[in-house]
Amino acid sequence: MNKTVNKVVLKNVRPYVKGKFESPVTMNLADGKWVKESLSDAVEVDAGGAMAIPALFGLGLDFKEPLRDDIYNFKDGEEAMRRGGFFGGLYESSDNAIDDSRKLLAIKQACSASGLSFAFLGAFSVGYKCKDLTEMIELAEDGAVGFGDGNQDATRTRFLRLAMEYGSMTGKRFFFMPLDESLRHHGLVHEGSFSDTLGMKGIPRVAETIAAFRILEMARFLKVPVHFKQVSCGETLKLIEDARGQGVDVTCDVDIYHLLLDDSCLFNLDSHCNVVMPFRSAKDREALWQGIKSGTVNAISMNHDPVLRQDKEVNFEDAVPGAISLEIALPALWKPLTDCVGESRAVELLSKESANIAQVEPSAIEQGFKTDLVLFDNKGETLVEPGLFAGQVRNCPLLGSKLSGKIKGSYLGGRWTEV
Length: 419
Prior knowledge:
Helices cover 30% and strands 24% of the residues. By secondary structure, it is an alpha/beta fold. It has 2 domains: 84 residues, no CATH class; 310 residues, TIM Barrel (Alpha-Beta Barrel), CATH 3.20.20.140. The strands form 3 sheets. Strands 1, 2, 3, 4, 5, 6, 7, 18, 19 and 20 form a 10-stranded mixed β-sheet that branches.
């Protein structure tokens, strides 16, 4: 699938420059830049009128190493990012809490050889257990861009206050997946008509909204910036809007699959649709799209969470939650996203806005400067099949689907990868 080189000439390509796609040109790429001079020793690629999009930035990346490198590792993650056109990502592993500086420095070193741009969330509690605070000041000094919950329930109110009070001294943002575990209570799917029909225990919307309200109230009280990961229902977006009106510094993202799927996908009990934050109703999905259109939603997250095949190829209720997305995110999202907000805003949401949340310099395409891009044919087609994915995993809810658009390659960190 891949051929990796340092220099490439892209012919008949439409680069995204200063907010719009230009007419077809020839781009000479070398040493990580779009250069003026011709390249005699470069690989030549006829783009066929495909678009050169500023490389994407992924929120919610988990590559499992070191504790679960039997599932996935950093090498697999880098390969997935290059196939999908991601120049960087915000890293937080539910299996590997970055709860001291030693772990942070080790994981930074492990990712440094990739040539990609990573930011890291430190844990605000040891092992994500909400019992002992981490040394957040040290983590911030060593480069943590914020503090996360590892997608665990962190809404124990007294501990939440202690963590945010201590972490406020760093000025960093706190990242939460708002889901009250006591209200979830072993639920697997959204509580609604489909869960009733299937006879499965549901997770009510209030499991998300009560958790979100508690966090927002604490953020308002302590004047601490917060970010909500994987918002799944319209009521939460309304809480966010209200909190912003009261002066709370709150950002949020929506998971890729919550934009593409709703709880009707559960009818065939495909275990690949078993994810941590449940797919809500069609009405909720429409509310998320409206949140993107209105600007309430700041970015779209990938939540790339690999799961072993044997842990997915079981009954729905026995499957390990999680889904991967990096390799197919762009063709899956491009058409519905551009239909909703247009090409320029779509690029911002997938690249610039996500990078800004992680405090990473976004990618851009400009002659003479550092350039990271993904070559995308919006008139092509992608069949989602196991061979698209890096590593040994394939836990994608869109397996077997045909997507509008095709990634032809990426130029990231000075390396061209043909797909």
